[in-house]
Automatic annotation (TrEMBL):
The keyword Transcription does not apply. NCBIfam families: cbbA. PANTHER family: D-TAGATOSE-1,6-BISPHOSPHATE ALDOLASE, D-TAGATOSE-1,6-BISPHOSPHATE ALDOLASE SUBUNIT GATY-RELATED. Binds 2 Zn(2+) ions per subunit. One is catalytic and the other provides a structural contribution. The keyword Zinc applies. GO terms for molecular function: aldehyde-lyase activity; zinc ion binding. Pfam families: F_bP_aldolase. Its cofactor is Zn(2+). Zn(2+) 2 binds at D105, E135. This is Fructose-bisphosphate aldolase. It comes from Streptomyces caeruleatus. InterPro entries: Aldolase_TIM, Class_II_FBP_aldolase, FBA_II.
Length: 281
């Protein structure tokens, strides 16, 4: 069934566990995430990013409608989240498109501008009954930009600044920069667990880990124990899908039916989803 992100995160945070949130780009991603979650008997978040909407010719509704229908028929609770939103126009489409939550991404902005833009997004989202996440500190790696130097100013989330940011903006959850980076194709990130502990101590909202594809299993387990309640995974699904399709087409150069390779790619994503959920369980 379709449920809200807020209820899944609240329950996970209370149990000191985490909900996996997977970025979906195609219908095959949607189907694979739900099948993987069903195989584990776990609730899951399907998230659509602003970049994914751009890929879909700028249109949110076709993929969103499909995701809602898939969620409604799922055997496990499934929530829909709009991810890394910078466009007000897209933000305002969230409720009608079936999303119960959004992530407003002002992390590129200087602190005061991030706070002001996030607060405006929070006020609007809460009036609509939406749960809203924001980001402070920078992970890098989005849109092809290199991962930030972990020691660069602003690359890590400062606990005192985060405390003020959450209090002044009213966000429901905070994405923190603790050593992960977006779009990593190797699982070689090392997290700053001491910083995560200080952030968890300073904040009374659930924490979100982005760029989790590059984080090894043991680091993920420790991050959940340290206060991460939502684990965002995107690139791992693309690695699984693309690798499986590449191998299939290399072995079957005569193949033309798209179902042949899409099904192979989808099954690889189902396994990747189950692998992540197993680590978080
Ligand atoms: O918001 C999305 C996540 O941060 C995904 O990051 O593609 O590096 O796993 P990833
Ligand atoms: Zn992210």
């Amino acid at each position: 069934p379709l449920v809200t992100t807020g209820e899944l995160i609240t329950r996970a945070a209370a149990a000191r566990s985490a909900v996996a949130a997977f970025n979906v780009i195609t219908l095959e991603h949607v189907e694979a995430v739900i099948a993987g979650a069903e195989s584990m008997g776990s609730a899951v978040v399907l998230q659509v990013s602003e970049n994914a909407v751009r890929f879909r010719y700028g249109r949110l509704l076709p993929l969103a409608r499909a995701a809602v229908a898939a969620a409604e028929h799922a055997a496990v609770p499934v929530a829909l989240h709009l991810d890394h939103i910078q466009s007000d126009d897209l933000l305002r489409q969230a409720p009608d498109a079936g999303f119960s939550s959004v992530m407003y991404d002002g992390a590129r902005l200087p602190y005061a501008d991030n706070l002001a833009a996030t607060k405006a997004a929070v006020d609007w989202a809460h009036a609509q009954g939406l749960w809203i996440e924001a980001e402070l500190g920078r992970l890098g790696g989005k849109n092809g930009e290199p991962p930030l130097d972990a020691h660069a100013p602003g690359a890590r989330t400062d606990p005192a600044e985060a405390h003020a940011f959450v209090a002044d903006s009213g966000v429901d959850a905070l994405a923190v920069a603790v050593g992960s980076s977006h779009a990593m194709t190797t699982r070689t990130a090392t997290l700053d667990h001491d910083l995560l502990k200080r952030l968890a101590g300073a904040l009374d909202v659930p924490l979100v880990l982005h760029g989790s594809s590059g984080v090894p299993d043991g680091e993920l387990t420790a991050a959940v124990a340290g206060g991460i309640a939502k684990v965002n995974v995107g690139t791992a699904l693309n690695i699984a899908m693309t690798g499986a399709i590449r191998d299939f087409l290399a072995a079957h150069p005569e193949a033309v039916d798209s179902r042949k390779y899409l099904s192979v790619g989808r099954e690889a994503m189902v396994r990747a989803v189950a692998d992540i959920i197993r680590v978080l369980a």
